[in-house]
Queue: 4 jobs
Job 1
Amino acid sequence: MDIRNTENKNIKITLLALGCSKNLVDCENMSTELKMAGYNVINDVPESDIVVINTCGFIESAKKEAIDNILAVADYKVPNGKVKKIIVSGCLSQRYPEDILKELPEVDAVLGTAHYGDIVDVVAKLSNELDKESEKINLTTGVGGYKHLVKKREISTEAYAWLKIGEGCLNRCSFCAIPLIRGPFVSRPLEDIVEEAKIIASRGIKELVLAAQDTTNYGIELYKERSLTKLLRSLSEIDGIELIRVMYGYMDGITPDLIEEMANNPKVAHYLDIPIQHGSNKILKAMHRRDTAELITSRLEMIRKAMPDCIIRTTVMVGFPGETEEDFIELKENLRKWKFDRLGCFIFSPEEGTVAYDMPDQVDEQTKQRRYDEIYELQKQISAEQSKKRLGTVTRVNICSVSDDGIFYVGRSYGEAPEVDPVIYVASQKEELNIGDFVDVKIADCSDDYDMTAVTIDGE
């Protein structure tokens, strides 16, 4: 039964996106679908009739954030506030649908990762029963899929746009629940991605940020070969696009042809986000990673030889089962050698359904925290050293916002990815800059632990 043609404009809906950029894209697509169906999508939980919480369920801290947000929204539910229905979507719903409906009775519906496209039908059903208790909805069969993506979706990030190129993951890391939640890796057809990118460019957005669980696996199951190089070439031919950023690659997928394309294509950022997870071969093997310390070393040398200015970000994990003090020391020694410009660190948390969940030799929490703190202290020094190399250089910056004090513009160059990296505070020598403008600046100060300060150069 088609229930999309009801009078919906008086129903106010707020969507909350938690977790990663891929979740944000899913939320933008749901918002677009709801607006197309006539619903009044706002950004105000207390004034909403229905609230949709798109959750992450990757690690323990993400699950806690999701539950905290559900409970916070529940405080606004009738009879305490105006909210009448709560929908929980995304990864947490996929993993624990029955638990959510049982332990959080304020929740009226759960949608799994294969059911974002059902949001309008679910909202319509709940809207017909806004002022009374309704039957709980559980749509969590199947996993993953990109069929819900709307090419003309709204973009909530004004100066850039995330562009999802695939869903799920082919890797089977022993600590990771993503394949259980999102399914195996599925590439979007190249033509589909390019069509959406052209629509984004037509709106004046000049920076594309490519996202998938493993972007370097793009095309491997669809075209029977790694096809990220071909995709980058196709996207760079779009008028209006000035910068294309690759996120979430794997070291064994950083192939010579990809490096060559990045080095020679002026629209592709000399930037890579490559989560290596560890520096000890013993732990890498236990994690079911394909990389070795030797491979990581050789690929980094290859990248930096072709692109000496390349900014490289990584992620590591401490406290994995069986990680001895010797393994941890080896990780630190390799990080000193590899000199990643940016680094994020996770503390291992056992996730149900993964191989590592009940592995022997679990590391105690105090040791995990100490190692986490040591990694960040080490990386703080490395990042400062790497940043100083950029002092006095000229770089092109995408203006994203204005600082809270109104003194500086806030921007990012090719070397700063949205949300996870530092920013560049820009003092403009011209009267006004606009959000989304690309301007040339000179790095004037790198003394801050992470952020930098720059000034626009003559002519900008």
Job 2
Amino acid sequence: MPNTPSQQTYSNHTRLDPPYHFFLIPIALLNLLRAVYALVKMPAYGSALDVIFAVAFVLALFKLRTYPLRVQDRLIRLEETLRLTPLLPAELAARLSSLTPGQFVALRFASDAEAPALVRRALEENLAPADIKKAISNWRPDHFRV
């Protein structure tokens, strides 16, 4: 049986946005390659401007993606702090601010039962986000991440 949205796991939790990942990014990169090729073949002021505009377009696409993800990571940090604080012993709750944004993002998938042990391991072993996700047995799906 294929995984349904409620059966999210480490192997299927990443999300791609087809219009962004499979249309906008390839078109932007092809445009950049075309502009560089034209500049090399026929150096001219207009060709140089085309390269500058193509680079600006690629950078804009990446910034348009990273800014909302950064805001979302801040919200996840807040949500997880609110969720984890009552679940953790006081000494661990006091150290939550030592977790990296990536660790908070990874911990959001951990069930309430296994979160305290994973927080302790993340803090003591400086676990990478991928290692935290791989250590989760009872996965809490998150279908709202963009």
Job 3
Amino acid sequence: MKAGKIMAAILAASMAVPFCACKRNPDKETETSPSESATATTVKPTDSATEPTVTETEPSESETVPTSVEDQSSEPLIIYGYDKEFGNILKDYLVDVEFVYEYVEPDKYIQTLNEALQSEEQKPDLFMMDKDNLGSFSESGKTMDMDSLGIPRSELYDQFAYTYQVAVDADNKVKALAFELAPSVIIYNRALAKQALGVYEPSDVSAKLSDWRTILDYAHDVNINSEGAVKLLEDREQLHDVYWAGHTEPWVKDGKIAVETDFDQYILLQESLFAESLTAEQTPFSREWASDINTEKTVMFFGSLQTAADVIGYVPGHEEKQEADNGATETTSDNADATGETSETEPVITGWGIVPAPSATYDGGTWLMVASTCEKKATAAHVLRILTLDKDTLTDLAVKGYFVNSRSIMKRCAEDPNFISDFLCGQNPYALLVPEAEKIQISSDPLTDRYADSEIKRLLDAYLAGDILTPEELKEQFVIGMEELLGLS
């Protein structure tokens, strides 16, 4: 594949960007960039994507966003992150910024970051943030909102809306911009799908797994037909996250906790999966969990392309074509028998496919935040624009296999045949993932959602352990617990 052809499909512009869609190989940590510090320059998106309607809750540029911001320090920008490769990205794209990149091991990152933010020396100016901790950092006073950096919400018109809606504070101020996205789908083993569902092509599988009722029915069938050797799902925990992503009703109505029918459906779903041993009950992403998926003991799991890369070795872009064993081969051959007659063999089905989950959601992603103590606002804003808004940067990263936060660029990837995946047996993953990312909905009350999520998990465990005797009692305790947490009792 020629890079020029891909660029023509993506931006229809005369840019020469080398095609390097390959699996990411973390290199050594990047510590500093030797180039000089730069003042912030506005890099406005130039694509003609349709701008979303501005709502009344969005800030007015003239009233809340400063026309310019300045640096109050000449020191290098200090950037914290939990991804070694991110240091190389900074080095590649921040050619006019003097910075220091501090890499921290992922399992120590949040503790180290909090300690650094409270220190008196070398406080982080800008830092990476994951999905799990984004909400608490957005709501805290540790981070600076985009308005204060001179980046109005109107400048985010080409970004996927959920990525900044999930990162707002109590005043609806955006506190982080997403660098890489991870919309989630169902990833399934085509051969096992043929055995379990009777079909294996994405259009057919999608129809079979379009709602939770049919997923439960097939989980039962797979378990019975395989005598427990194969499961439709590896665990119940992933299902929890995807299920509640489809909950759009508020938990509080007229000052009272509102429990809708999807609550009852969820308890029934989880109880059936548990009581009939319809999942392997493995911890998501554990060694045993991944092993079962790769040894054809599980038909499907939920995940993003990042998850697929980690679990089953998915590689984005054209480099997959070098891995012949990963693609599906559906061959029908005529073999001559002893009489000279031919017989048609059954097609050999291998490989993986993806289809939408019953609820649109995401299982990860990377955001960038600016510390409230940052004295280099102009430079921090400049970095955010380069890494999350600049079309040249995002195009280059998309070609390398990143799901970037640009609706227009990712839509072009979805339409570009050069992104068809051999690993996914001829599917272009972005043709599915981009619409899913557009459909993701974020609650207007994320704190209440987190309380509800915690209470549901706690009470469900107690119910399945027999400490809570009935679904009605579980529901009553949920209402009482939420009232206490929200101060409604």
Job 4
Amino acid sequence: MKVDLSGQVALVTGAARGIGQAIAGVLAANQAKVVYTDVDAAAVEATAGMTSSVAMRMDVTDEAQVQDVIASVVEAHGRLDILVNNAGVNTLAHRVPIDEFPKTEWDRLINVDLTGLYLVSKSAGAVMRRQRSGRIINIASIVGLVPLRLQCAFAAAKAGVVNLTKAMALELGPDGITTNVIAPGSILTEGTEKLFYGQDGKFKDSVQRLLDHIPLGRPGTTEEIAYAVLFLAAPEASYVNGAVLTVDGGWTAGYARDF
């Protein structure tokens, strides 16, 4: 899939590894000038170096740092055309019911997955309003559409991302800015290897039950999410605004098993 993004400046959060790395790489391969950002400075510098792109450390929960990074991007490039809010966390240790879920872990997930997205969008949205153009693409999860057990904070945060995206589409659309959200299903990453797909995965014995819910019968790849982002970033997607694009192998289409 090829899209002409030449002359456009993109910023991707959580770009050091996994889905964020794949998204940033695909945008760069389609001629965008990509700024890779991540809270892990060493990792994001190494990752960005693979595509000769710029890397910057950014903690999405630190409003002052977010504003400084956005200002630096605009100072260096004169504009910001594409924002991909990918940075996010989930919990590995606390897959427990809400009455056992620690407040500290709730705060951590909400701060990164929802508040962090708000802070980056707030700063980038102001830039895009001034230039009267832009694309904001948020990465949520199917868990924000169909909540799963033992993930109360993640489900709440990602559901918030879905409706925040729609609110942003209403507010920013009149200024030529589109805002859309992608809801990935189970994607093969370092995190899901630790939970399901690795030999030592915490829930490796439940993998087949998980895959039974997915009509395609496999986890997705990070590249499959990246190409969904590329579609929404493309000039040809100029009338797509406030949309939720599920990339889940059919998981949320309905029951895949016989009863």
